[in-house]
Amino acid sequence: MKTLLVGYKAADLFERGKHGKKFTAKWIDGDVLCHTLDIYHRHAIEKTHHIRAVCSPHLPEGPWDLIKFKTGPKLMSGELSLDMLQEIHRLKPAKFELEFVGKERDRNELLSKIRDDPDRVRDFSAKWPASVPGGDKLMFTSYPGCFCHRRLDEGGLALAEVISRDLTSSPFPHSSFLKLLDMGCGCGLVGFLVKSVVKDISLVMVDSHSRAVEAANLNAANFNMSAEVILADNGTPARMDGTFDVFAGNPPYYSDYRIAEVFLETAKRALKPGGLCYTVVKNDAGLRPVQERYFPNVEVIRRRGYCVLKSVKA
Ligand SMILES: C[S@@+](CC[C@H](N)C(=O)[O-])C[C@H]1O[C@@H](n2cnc3c(N)ncnc32)[C@H](O)[C@@H]1O
Asked: I want to staple 158 with a disulfide (CB 3.0 to 4.6 A). Which of 14, 85, 106, 306 is the partner?
C-alpha cells in the first residue's frame, strides 16, 4: 500500500501511549511518504519519525494507493488548499481521504469548488509590480504558499529601499563588486529590487519554503538577473562563511524571535568584517535587543511604518 501524506506536520504523526509516551501513529502503515512544502517540516518529521519525507513545490508523482490531505482555514490559505486538491486530483490516487480541521460548512465549500468542475486546471500564480527609486518596475510572480502571495510586503519594500539607498549613496569600503545574502527571500523581493539599482551585486537567496525557491528562480529568469537560490532552514552553507558584504532579512515573527535568531546567527557567520546587516520589523523594541546580541551596534531607520535595523559587523 503506497500512501502519500500531504499537509501533515511532525506533531500530527504522533500518538500517545501509556504514561503519555509518544510513538508514530498506528494509522501510518505500509509504504508512506510525507510531503512538505517547507524544509523545516521535512527535517522535523525525519528527526522524530521513521517515515520518509520529501520537500518539493509540487506533489511527487505516483502511482498512489492512498493520498491523505490535512487542511483547514487555520492550517493553510483557501487558495493553497485548492491548489493542493487540484494536484491530488491530477495524480488520480486509488483512494483519497481529507482530514479537514474546521467547520463542516467550510469543508463542503472547499470540496464543492473542485467537484463542480474537477478537470478544470486553474493557474494559482499571481503577478504584481514593485520598484525602488532609481530602479526598473519589476513584475514579480508568486505562488500560493509563498509569503505575501498576490501582494507586495511593505516591510520587505522598506528594507529594499533602505539598502539600495545606502549602497548607492556611499561608496562601499570593500570592493566595487558586492555580494548580498537575502535570507528568507520569499519570491526574491528584496534582492531583486536592490539589484535593479545596484547592478554590480551578486545575489545569494535562501528560503526554507520550496515554493518561495521556485518563485525566486522564476523571477531571476524573468528579470534576467542571476541568483543562487538555496532551499535551507539553517542558513547558507559553511563554504560561504565570511564572504558577504550585505545581509538582508525580513524574518517571520510568529515564533517570537526564534527564527530571527537563526537569521542573525547566519548574518554574523556570512558577513565579512565591515559587512552590513539589515533586518526589518514593525516595532524595534523586541528585535533590537536580540540583534544587539549578535551585533553590538544597531541603528534604527524608520520607513513606511517599519523599522529597519542596521548593524556593521566588527
Ligand atoms: C516575512 S517573509 C519575507 C519574504 C521576503 N523577503 C519579503 O520581504 O517579502 C519571511 C520568509 O522567511 C522564510 N523562512 C522562515 N524560516 C526560515 C528559515 N529558517 N530559513 C530560511 N527562510 C525562512 C519564509 O518561508 C518566508 O518566505
From this structure: 306
